[in-house]
Specification:
disordered C terminus, five-stranded mixed β-sheet, disordered N terminus, single chain, mainly beta, four-stranded antiparallel β-sheet, 3 helices
Length: 230
């Protein structure tokens, strides 16, 4: 990744080859006039602004968040994955649903660092559960079911991002049912080709593999979060 030197005078004159990203997103003292700032809205229309503070490793680089509509006890926002010049962020907040007081809606945002020809950007991707209206419709129809996978999604354990070229990215979530070896689902979103999540079924034969189901159960996508320049 190359960065606009005119817009990043606060950065060192030479960029590191890679950085470490703090998974915690800081919500106090949002920097003003930060050239790395980008904004968009979440599924319920709240304005969301983030900025990125670059630091030389081993010091972690940080994200800052300004979310005026997200001041509730159950409003959460954090980093879950990174690849090349893109960072995947997850937002969770309660919305009213039929039959209960509220349920958590998950939004995903892709922060892309800018270069000499464009500024940083923040793009909201569709939730695995669909739009806010589609999510609420599941409760009205009595079709929503809480699963262990959803609890793992709460911590962003199974979601990852793949940067494919300058303007293309893909999201994927691996779901494994620990009580049914044949229930392996890979949820994939490729915004350049489709605006909807697609379900694929990877062929993993646990019986004939040394990597059996016990190997896959604790799998997660977080690991060491790094952001490397192309």
């Amino acid at each position: 990744m190359t960065m606009d030197r005119a817009a990043t005078s606060c950065f060192p004159s030479s960029l590191p080859d890679w950085v470490i990203i703090d998974r915690y997103v800081f919500r106090d003292s949002f920097p003003t006039g930060e050239p790395t700032e980008a904004s968009c809205t979440n599924s319920r229309g709240d304005e969301v602004r983030v900025c990125f503070q670059l630091r030389e490793p081993p010091r972690p680089s940080r994200f800052y968040l300004c979310w005026p509509g997200g001041k509730g006890e159950f409003d959460r926002f954090f980093v879950i994955s990174a690849h090349r010049d893109a960072v995947l962020l997850q937002m969770i907040y309660p919305i009213p649903v039929h039959g209960r007081e509220f349920a958590d809606l998950y939004d995903y945002f892709l922060y892309t660092a800018g270069d000499g020809s464009r500024r940083p950007s923040l793009e909201r991707f569709p939730s695995v559960d669909g739009t806010m209206a589609e999510f609420q419709a599941l409760f009205r129809a009595g079709e929503f079911v809480y699963t262990r996978q959803r609890l793992r999604r709460l911590d962003g354990l199974d979601m990852g991002v793949l940067r494919r070229g300058r303007d293309d990215s893909a999201l994927a979530e691996l779901q494994i049912d620990r009580f049914a070896e044949d229930q392996v689902e890979l949820h994939v979103l490729c915004p350049s080709s489709s605006g909807r999540w697609q379900v694929r079924h990877p062929m993993i034969d646990f019986r004939d593999s040394e990597l059996d189901l016990d190997f896959w159960r604790p799998w997660c996508s977080i690991g060491a979060l790094t952001l490397s320049w192309p």
